[in-house]
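Hi V.,

You were right to ask for the full record rather than a summary. Here it is.
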Amino acid sequence: MPAILLATIGLTLLFLGYRFYSRFIAERIYRLDPEFQTPAHAMRDDIDYVPTPRFVLWGHHFTAVAGVAPIIGPAIAVIWGWLPAFLWVTIGTIFFAGVHDFGAVWASVRNRAQSIGALTGDVVGPRARSLFMIVIFLLLLMVNAVFGVVIADALQATPSSVIPVWAATIVALALGQLLFRMKVPLLWPTVIGTVILYAVIWVGEVTPIELPASLFGLGPGAQWILILFAYAAIASLLPIWILLQPRAYINGVQLFVGLGLMYATLFIARPEIVAPAFNAEVPAAAPPLMPLLFVTIGCGAVSGFHGLVGSGTTSKQLDREPDARFVGYLGSAGEGALALAAIIAATAGFASLEEWRAVYTEFGGGGLAAFVEGGATIVSDGSGLRHETAATLLTMMAVLFAGTTMDTGVRLQRYIVQEWGAIYRIAVLRNAYVATFTAVGACLILAFGAGGTDLTGGMVLWPLFGTTNQLLAGLTLLVVSVILVKLGRPARYTLVPMAFVTTVALLAALYQLWDLYRTSQYLLLVLDILIVIAAVFVMLEAASALTRHRDHGGRGGNDPDAPAPTA
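Predicted structure:
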């Protein structure tokens, strides 16, 4: 099958989803009000609450939620064949992810920019909030640990990407000063910053950087982990406009250049998809497609982490409420396009079916390496770039996404710890430095505890991360549904995706419980049990609240055209 046909179908469906379905949700369900004063204005402090142009905020939101998950998940899931992965990415993005991400931003903006965990206390109850925040903290713990391991592995595998990756931080710092302190118009800083990002690729190839084979008994991967989390701790404490926001924005621009290059060269090189639509020769030890497909591909179809970003940082920067559609739904559509590119790179970037099968000999094979190598082949064939240069470019793109997600993830973890301090009146936890140290310390313990001092087993976290991620997506959709029912608005557009995602995530969690026990991974087994128990109790509490509000008929009746009450 020609890869360009799959790309054309997928991109067209994503465009139609944004053009029509998101408009319906915005006008008839969430009912965005251009006159509503967003928390970015009402609570402005120029640290976390900063009114932001929608294009800049979209860049921040998109790169914060994207990371490498929409690359790794699809590039692993094609082991079952490209068709199941393609269907879940397109359908999931349009009817699940878009509504979920958009809804999390809207619900938070309408409730003083509270995180989805804190918001649960208002709309469901204090017990649900406490349990929900445990799930959130554990998910962020895994997000940060997994992405730290992924970045460390990528920097070791492609030393030529080290200088370009860290140069992006310098560019972001300069961009923040130009845009937010000196109020320079957006165009020229964007152009110059993007040119610099790509110019340093050559510097990286000329001067690849590798860390010592051993330092204080730690290998290169462990050294990178410590460096990355030290950076993430500092970044999470800085005002958002100094580093996180401009870094996310310029990374978003860089993503579109990279994605544009990949899709353009796809039409020039015209590769064929060599992988089967359904793989009849899945390795014996691989888990079943149902339900594991739906947790292996989370980001790129639907992801609970997006709700944390949308309600944790994005909602604090939204300039106008109608921008929530552009930032939230279009952000998920952009991530769907990235996941689609990952599917194509991991199935059409190989010379033959035999070469593809040599990579996918076990579950977990492929992943980021398949995306980089397969994508580099397509880009190189279609543009004339050296394969090594194309590989550096794609590695830089993936690592910058992961780094932005780590920045955001550690900041969100800090928020959670500080919220715990406020809720339970533990003054020390409200201190930003203590909260950051607590978050980073927990991430390091999990990264080294799961992967060992050499981090060789760090990616064992991926399946559990996927399951927790989808459980959180279901819980977020459930909370948004309760808000809609409370307002007397139709909730089926959030309840149906919630029911599906929650069901497959719970089934996957039960499968993983046995697998973790069988393989004696007791640390992860305990985490999985805690997550499942907490999630089930939150669902029961939310279901009770949903029934209670539905029995009272909401506050605005069930007519979708009724005047919208303020949330």
